[in-house]
Amino acid sequence: MSEQDLQQANKLLVKKLLAVVAGMFVFVYALIPLYDVFCDITGLNGKTRGKALYESVSVDDQREITIEFMTNVNRGMPWEFGSKTAKVKVHPGELNEVIFYAKNRSGEETIGQTVPSVSPGQAALYLNKTECFCFDKQVLQAGEYVDMPMKFYIDPDLPEEITHLTLSYKLYNITEAVNSATGATK
Amino acid sequence: MADHHPTGIKRWLFTTNHKDIGTMYLWFSFVMFIVGGSMAMVIRAELYQPGLQFVDPNTFNQMTTMHGLIMVFGAVMPSMVGLANWLIPMQIGAPDMALPRMNNWSFWILPFAFTLLLLSFTMPGGAPNFGWTFYAPLSTTYAPPSTDFFIFGVHMMGISSIMGAINVIVTVFNMRAPGMTLMKMPLFVWTWLITAFLLIMVMPVLAGAVTMMLTDRHFGTSFFDAAGGGDPVMFQHIFWFFGHPEVYIMILPAFGVVSEIIPAFSRKKLFGYASMVYATASIALLSFIVWAHHMFTVGMPVAGELFFMIATMLIAVPTGVKVFNWVATMWKGSLTFETPMLFSIAFVILFTIGGFSGVMLAMAPIDFQYHDTYFVVAHFHYVLFPGAIFGTTAAVYYWMPKWTGKKCNEKWGKWHFWLSMIFVNLTFFPMHFSGLAGMPRRIPDYNMMFAGFNELASIGAFGLGLVQILFLFIVIKTVRSGEKSEKKPWDGATGLEWDQIDTPAPYHTFDTPPKVS
After folding, report:
1. How far is residue B211's CA from residue B222's CA, in Å, rounded to a whole number?
2. What's the CATH code of the domain at A127?
3. Which of A114, B22, B338, B494 could cysteine-pair with B85, CB 3.0–4.6 Å?
């Protein structure tokens, strides 16, 4: 190979390799939605799906599932947040309601967002919520108290071996994030 | 003319010569090795006895974090690039690396990257303290302000590694001497070629991970923040997608080194050359589908645990092929035990121990007990110290005559070897036991019941640290006043660099390509 041909060949190969590098960098960012899609399909992550519709689901009286409710408040969130029921026993297919409550103990308007998680993770796809405060952000004035109903039913297809579920909510303070986002768009 | 080169500081700043750059890489990695090693000394001093004696817990965490980062990115990786620079052109009959200016740049980024990283010790809040794996949210929400310097440092060393890797690939693909087909290349070149492909695949992933950290910290994104819809476990997936190939990046070139040295001192051809190449390639391919074995305890479903467990155990097969081939090469060979050979044999034995503890860790149900204990620390130090570092040390002893024209003193070399061999085991072997008994990683204080094992490990570590200073003296003494070497100091050595180049290698080699039959 002559000197010039070699230079050409080197340049071409460098370009190809740089394309691989760029491709991998893009791939990392693509992984974020890809993982979400993967978890959504398989329900591996314990993330519940969005709003479900309750339509004539057959109730399975034979099975009884115990559901425990857990609530956590993140650092820097001045709210009280809890469930009025710690634990219920339900039949798969029946529509149930549980009341959660929140109280803003601070002197300022605060915006909160809860993030649900189900354990064991495989059960996440079978826990269907028709109404949940976690679908929206919550705005509470200083000292305001609110009862928040959550309606759900368990899909009768829930795998046999699962008899206990835990539905956990974590409450985050998103006041700053929301204000800076709206401030930016104004 | 052949030996003309600029002198003084400019020679080193502006050099595009692969030998100069290789030398700088090797010295740089040794400096980092000492810096990271002194942090290990602080860790072992604190752990010598239960209770807090020397440093507060936050400083201790900074020590473990920076020790890991410096050793991985500052010591092991640059030492392998240094060997690649020195050896690849000579072994394939090329006059230099394909992209010499980029080569200079990829080296000179490193001192700046590590200066930034080390400066973080002087900043308010101290250096990064979240472990070398920098899991979010420890490295995002709860991290010290200096983390941004860490992020920038990682970006720079990532760019350096990618450029180094591109250079190796282009050199090997386009600059081989006529007749040097791929399957005639020395194994060191092969393992480095595969390593270079791993590097260009995963260093951008690391760059992406730290970029996400940066935007999470300052620009309101929520990649790893559950409050904004992100997921901290996502960080672990991304990190280990980089991290597992990374561990092979650190070890594959050392596989190549011992595959050169063992045949030379067995006076036999390497057993199973082709299977060595395929085994290395299989290890590299498998490394992309095993990452979640680092995260068995995050709450994966059984299907995931099973997949990653089986895929991980599969890696033991090509690795077993390699160990078998090294042993078979020595089988019925006319063995002699000069220093490079001693380090290589120790490599085979101790790396295999590290491999076995790896197979133990690969078993998902058992990993729940071992996870985040000293057993893990014992495992990866067995594959890194007697693996990557013994490999590099063996390479330095083996090719030193070619580089400098002078031989290392065998007596001192053997002292270096035997003391290293004793102390490396004294340091890391007890960690298996304290780990099995339940001692967690990354803690400055521990239960009384682990005191005996820790005392042994600390004594071993202080000895191991001192012995590496002896290595520095051996190298300096060799360069200054070593015994002059004949053209081929090892009678079993083969390859273009021994057969066709003078000793010491002149500044410019293979201006006209050699004929390879």
Report:
1. 12
2. 2.60.370.10
3. B22
Decide if pLDDT at A118 tops 70: yes
Q: How many domains does chain A have?
A: 2
A174 to chain B nearest CA, in Å?
7
pLDDT at B307 over 60: yes
Identify the contact set of chain A against chain B, taking CB-CB distances under 8 A. Answer: 1, 6, 9-10, 13-14, 17-18, 20-22, 24-25, 27-29, 31-32, 35, 42, 44-46, 74, 113, 115, 119, 121-122, 170, 172-174, 177, 180-181
- Kindly state whether residues A28 and A103 are assigned to the same domain: no
Q: Give the per-residue pLDDT at A44.
A: 66
Domain shared by A53 and A29, yes or no: no
Whether B299 and A170 lie within 8 Å, measured CB to CB: no
pLDDT digit string (tens) for B82-123?
999 999 999 999 999 999 999 999 999 999 999 999 999 999
Asked if B170 reaches chain A (Cβ–Cβ under 8 Å), the answer is yes
What is the nearest CA distance from B241 to chain A, expressed in angstroms? 9
Say how far apart CA B418 and CA B378 lie, in whole Å: 20
* Cβ atoms < 10 Å from Cβ of B160: 23
Q: What is the ipTM of this complex?
A: 0.90
- Evaluate if residue B30 carries a pLDDT over 70: yes
A86 and A12 share one domain: no
**Structural domain boundaries enclosing A130:** 47-182
Could you list the active site residues of B? 67, 96, 132, 160-161, 244, 246, 248, 259, 293-294, 319, 322, 441
Specify the DSSP element, H or E, that contains A146.
Answer: strand A145-154
CB B170 within 8 A of CB B507: no
Q: Which two tokens stand for residue B226?
A: 């559950």
Side chain identity at B131, as an amino acid letter?
Answer: G
Residues A103 and A174 in one domain: yes
In a shared domain, residues A122 and A93: yes
pTM: 0.89
A93 lies in the same domain as A27: no
Measured CA distances, B491 to B44, B257, B291, B342 (Å)? 42, 17, 43, 16
Q: Are residues A64 and A134 in the same domain?
A: yes
Query: Does one domain contain both A37 and A58?
Result: no
Calculate the average pLDDT of chain B: 95
Residues of B in contact with A122 (CB under 8 A): 301
